[in-house]
Write a structure and sequence with these properties.
alpha/beta, six-stranded parallel β-sheet, 22 helices, 20 strands
Length: 586
């Protein structure tokens, strides 16, 4: 969303430096100074003074407020906006239930290192602590899931707090911050003194130091001595914008690359050096590669349990180089032989420069040939082209029909199939990784489409997940957003059913969603969104193609084979090499 006009900013030469304005107007001016032109939110009593200022900002033409239908949707939309652009996402919610409805979205952003500024209304200052109507201690509730938070008790602090909030959210390892503003703070008039972005350094906050040249040299030494090196790439490469430098390094050294769910798009999956995603539902060849490598080069990744499987069997013969911006992640789960602390882009640039100056010879020999052998022997499953539609076919069709789309997902089997079969560019894969938040996909797609109105945006949803935030179809319809929502519908909580089949002797407790399943097409149409049902293979490609080319928003409900499982799969407590569901005959 671009600015349509340039209103005067308080504090410029033609304005009085200490003009009396309300706290709410001061907040809006501070947001404008930090480049905010889009806010996602939902009004309520305690935040009404701020919404009155929003009305003024919209009438001046510099702000677009997107009215979501649930505060959780607003947080996820701001999250999608941030992931797709690299900018800080902003969302508003009122006190009490409005604030607590934001909590899941805040936790999602925290787990996936997404920069958000979350602004909540609060009851007036004299009422705080009295159990007033719609009072909750959102500051205390969110302490474990934010980088920092404030309760603003003096309107004169607003400009400084906003400046610190944006600085902290976007600096170092990105993440969400929260600003709680009592209602009377928004109403109070005071002498406003603007604060320019970046002019205040938050007390106690330290920016990452530059990478240590000795660590870079030690890392290169390990790379030179390795026979079976492997890049293990996480979301930190996306956050830092280091994808091109990573590509240059991988090709210079001829080192294969595997990515986490959060790292998808950091390396071109069409490249011969790519081995795709690793972990619980990673490719067979990625998991075999990580098991047999003798050097694991972790870049912006945190060795989480869905990647490592049984931790003491993860890359058991490998030395570890860990490029990381957050010192807390280094040697947390796996001891690093060499740790390179600092911004990932800066670290990789220095490693690339040193490699070129030393004229390092690229890796040759049996390691790449062995990986190619695994690729040929353990490909991803291509389902038979008869009978019921297979869920994998849906993703393969989308890959062919809209290969350059921005993709959001909900959480479950469909998410893993999408991760396996779709090949995305940087910031084009937007999915809840760490928290695994059902209901993330639709509002995240909303945020992406608002941020990038000319791009194709697709949400891959499950029939269970979509019901978590389906009310955001109303937002999509209101703003005429041409988002395409594809439901991979097996009438189950698919991943829950798969685990119940595999580990609970097929006791399908509370996972069958067929009873009470809505008519998604008529439901979409009731919101003003187009809809098409596909349940016959002969209709899959032609109907899906028409739906994806439709000019407006469209929901596509594709009924797929109910009992299909997502493979390969690393069972809990097993090593990555102990996958089940690899192609038969291997």
């Amino acid at each position: 969303m671009t600015l349509t006009s340039s209103p005067k900013v308080l504090g410029d030469k033609e304005n009085q430096e200490h003009r009396q304005i309300s706290g709410a107007d001061a907040l809006m001016d501070a947001l404008r100074r930090h480049g905010v032109d889009t806010v996602f939110g939902y009004p309520g009593g305690a935040i009404l003074p701020i919404y009155d200022a929003v009305h003024k900002a919209e009438s001046e033409g510099w702000l677009k407020h997107i009215l979501v239908r649930h505060e959780q949707g607003g947080a996820h939309a701001a999250d999608g906006f941030a992931r797709a652009t690299g900018k800080v996402g902003v969302c508003f919610g009122t006190s009490g239930p409005g604030a607590t409805n934001l909590v899941t979205g805040i936790a999602t952003a925290q787990m996936d290192s997404v920069p958000l500024v979350v602004i909540t209304g609060q009851v007036p200052r004299p009422a705080i602590g009295t159990d007033a109507f719609q009072e909750t201690d959102i500051f205390g509730i969110t302490l474990p899931i934010v980088k920092h938070s404030w309760v603003v008790r003096n309107p004169a602090d607003l400009a400084s707090v906003v400046s610190q909030a944006f600085f902290i959210a976007a600096s170092g390892r990105p993440g969400p911050v929260l600003i709680d503003i009592p209602k009377d703070v928004g109403q109070e008039f005071f002498s406003y003194v603007p604060v320019d972005p970046g002019s205040i350094h938050p007390p106690g906050f330290r920016l990452p130091a530059s990478p240590d040249p000795l660590s870079i040299s030690q890392a290169l030494d390990l790379i030179q001595r390795a026979h079976r090196p492997l890049f293990y790439v996480g979301g930190g490469v996306i956050s830092s914008g280091a994808h091109q430098t990573l590509s240059d390094l991988a090709k210079l050294h001829q080192i294969p690359v595997t990515t986490t769910l959060m790292g998808k798009g950091a390396f071109d999956e069409h490249d011969s050096l790519s081995v795709g995603m690793l972990g619980m539902h990673g490719t067979g060849y990625a998991n075999f590669a990580v098991t047999e490598c003798d050097l694991l080069i972790a870049v912006g990744a945190r060795f989480d349990d869905r990647v490592t499987g049984k931790l003491d069997t993860f890359a058991p013969s490998a030395k570890v180089i860990h490029f990381e911006i957050d010192p807390a992640e280094v040697s947390k789960n796996r001891i690093a032989d060499v740790a390179v602390l600092g911004d990932v882009l800066e670290s990789l640039e220095k490693l690339l420069d040193l490699s070129r100056r030393k004229k390092i010879e690229p890796l040759t020999g049996p390691w790449l040939q062995r990986i190619d052998g695994w690729k040929n022997r353990y490909p991803l499953i291509v389902p038979p082209q008869d009978g019921e539609i297979y869920p994998q076919e849906v993703l393969l069709s989308i890959k062919d029909l809209l290969p350059d789309a921005y993709v959001t997902t909900d959480v479950g089997q469909h998410q893993m199939w999408a991760a396996q079969y779709l090949k995305n560019g940087p910031r084009q894969w937007i999915s809840s990784g760490g928290l695994g938040t059902m209901g993330f996909g639709v509002p995240a797609a909303l945020g992406v489409q608002i941020a990038l109105p000319k791009e194709n945006v697709i949400c891959i949803a499950g029939d269970a997940s979509i019901l978590m935030n389906i009310q955001e179809l109303a937002t999509i319809a209101q703003y005429k957003l041409p988002i395409k929502i594809v439901i991979v519908n097996n009438s189950w909580q698919g991943m829950v059913r798969q685990w119940q089949e595999s580990f609970y002797e097929e006791r399908y407790s509370a996972s069958d969603m067929s009873k009470g399943m809505p008519d998604f097409i008529n439901l979409a149409k009731a919101f003003g969104v187009g809809g098409v049902l596909i349940n016959d293979r002969k209709d899959l490609i032609p109907e899906l193609k028409k739906a994806l080319n439709f000019a407006g928003p469209m929901l596509v409900d594709i009924h797929v084979r109910r009992g299909e499982n997502c493979y390969p799969m690393v069972p809990p407590g097993k090593s990555n090499a102990q996958m089940v569901g690899l192609p038969s005959g291997t």
